[in-house]
Amino acid sequence: MPGIYHDVMSPEPRPRVSLRRVTHADRDAFLAMARLSLDLHRPWVTSPTTPEAFDRYLARFDGVRAIGHVLVLADALVGFVNLNDIGDDGAMIGFGVFAPAMGRGCMREGLDLALRLAFHDLGLPRVSADVQPSNVPCVRLLKGAGFTLHPGRSTVIHVGGADRLHERWSLAREEFFATSTP
Ligand SMILES: CC(C)(COP(=O)(O)OP(=O)(O)OC[C@H]1O[C@@H](n2cnc3c(N)ncnc32)[C@H](O)[C@@H]1OP(=O)(O)O)[C@@H](O)C(=O)NCCC(=O)NCCS
Description:
Elements: H1 2-9, E1 18-21, H2 27-36, H3 38-41, H4 51-59, E2 67-73, E3 76-87, E4 90-97, H5 106-121, E5 126-131, H6 136-144, E6 148-149, E7 155-159, E8 162-172, H7 173-179
């Protein structure tokens, strides 16, 4: 599997991923990738690894309050980016790359696509992420995208089998527009 990404991406310094809504047709490929990614995702996020868990995952996305996406590169699933708790105040974003595509810039690009969707298409005022402070790759990714830490907005979330402290990182629409290319 890594060879596929290598071949596709060799001529380009960056991948060219696309973002589309996750559907039931993605189930088998998603489960295969999520199982390969268990070590990468634990203890940061929980992804479905059984058909039943995938069906429950899919049911969360009503297209209004929550929208689930897969990241796609050359017809292969390389990750997911979800907008949750969508409302007047903005949305919470959750994401993960799948192990074969890790560290190749897919999520940097996928995050940018999701932010464009949130700010341009949905017109949301703010996108936030709750992140465990020790999740260095995620913090660097968010900082690189312009997110800033909101002191005093820490929260405890049950993930990876335990209650874990998370810090709130946020990006406002005007901050995104000020720095992003059209
Ligand atoms: C966080 C995560 C999505 C990053 O995915 P990725 O494929 O490595 O990211 P990219 O290749 O697009 O890199 C984007 C940026 O992430 C940061 N990054 C990626 N891997 C890193 C690492 N091992 N150490 C430090 N920073 C890292 C870098 O800032 C990088 O930008 P740079 O290349 O300009 O330095 C991935 O590690 C992951 O899925 N982790 C598990 C799930 C998770 O933590 N989700 C978020 C929960 S809030």
